[in-house]
Amino acid sequence: MKTIISPSILGGSFSNMEKTISELDMSKVEYIHFDVMDGDFVPNLTFGPQFISDLRLKTNKIFDVHLMIHRVDKFLDDYIKAGSNIITFHYEIDENINHIIDRIKKENIKAGIAIKPNTSWEKIKKYLHLVDQVIIMTVEPGFGGQSFLTDQVEKIKSISHYIKKNNLKVDIEIDGGVNYDTGKLSIDAGANILVAGSFLFKQSNLIDASNKLIDFFN
Ligand code: DX5
Ligand code: ZN
After folding, report:
1. What's the pLDDT at 210?
2. Is residue 35 annotated as part of the catalytic site, yes or no?
3. Which of 10, 11, 49, 150 is least enclosed, having the fewest CB within 10 Å?
4. What is the pLDDT of residue 133?
């Protein structure tokens, strides 16, 4: 199966975002990952819908929006209008998950559900026939640059096994601490999308780094 790389722009400097997006636009990546944080669901605050809609004008790549926020139902329209192509929100929020998935799908946008490292995959079993992707967090959400939690590999294996056994069409995206080694562990366990932030941005050339990571896994 093809491996998709979704660079997390959180790894780059916010002062350089136009350059980052134009470099990613020139690279072979298909997805660009946006980490939306509200300072409440996670202990960090990043950006909102305006940031996404402004960057939407700069590229046609697929915008893979990861909402680490509470009150998803309230703000969902803003992220839809901003031009998101995939919207993933967290299982751990205290809201009606079926309703949010329905709202996203009605807009012809892909819907995803994410789980934190301490949430077991069985909790989202009942949503797997409704969503297009799951995000398995391999770091505690909130910050880029953390180390991959190897104990999540079993979770990737289990959910991948369940998805295959039940013939479901759900992508498995891994988010946090991805590099060549941890990416390989994840792909071998059944993932097919890798979010990569600091690993790409710490290299001198973002385009080359992104293309190399894609070639390595394909
Ligand atoms: C963490 C974010 C990740 C993160 C990935 O809360 O969801 O997308 O920015 O960054 P790295 O690859 O640096 O772990
Ligand atoms: Zn993310």
Report:
1. 98
2. yes
3. 150
4. 98
The predicted pLDDT at position 57 comes to 98
| Nearest atom (ligand 1) to Cα of 33 | 8
Low-confidence ranges of the chain (pLDDT < 50): none
Distance, CA of 119 to CA of 130 (rounded, Å): 19
Ion ligand 2, residues whose Cβ is below 5 A away: 35, 66, 175
Note if the pTM is more than 0.90: yes
Residue located nearest, by CA, to atom 12 of ligand 1: 197
Instruction: List, in sequence order, the alpha helices (H) in the chain.
Output: 17-26, 49-56, 72-81, 97-106, 153-165, 180-189, 198-201, 206-217
| Angle value at C-alpha 155, between 150 and 158, nearest 5 degrees | 140
Which pLDDT score is estimated for 6?
99
Question: What CATH number is associated with residue 91?
Answer: 3.20.20.70
Give the count of domains, the chain.
1
Give the structural domain span for 124. 4-217
Atom of ligand 1 nearest to the CA of 37: 6
* pLDDT for res 22: 98
State both tokens at 43.
Answer: 């202990």
| Active-site entry in 35, 64, 132, 171 | 35
Clarify whether 188 is annotated catalytic.
no
Q: Is the CB of 83 under 6 A from ligand 1?
A: no
- Report the residue among 9, 10, 113, 174 best suited for mutation to probe ligand 1: largest number of ligand atoms under 8 A from its CB: 10
Q: Which two structure tokens, joined as six digits, stand for 7?
A: 């660079």
| pLDDT at res. 153 | 98
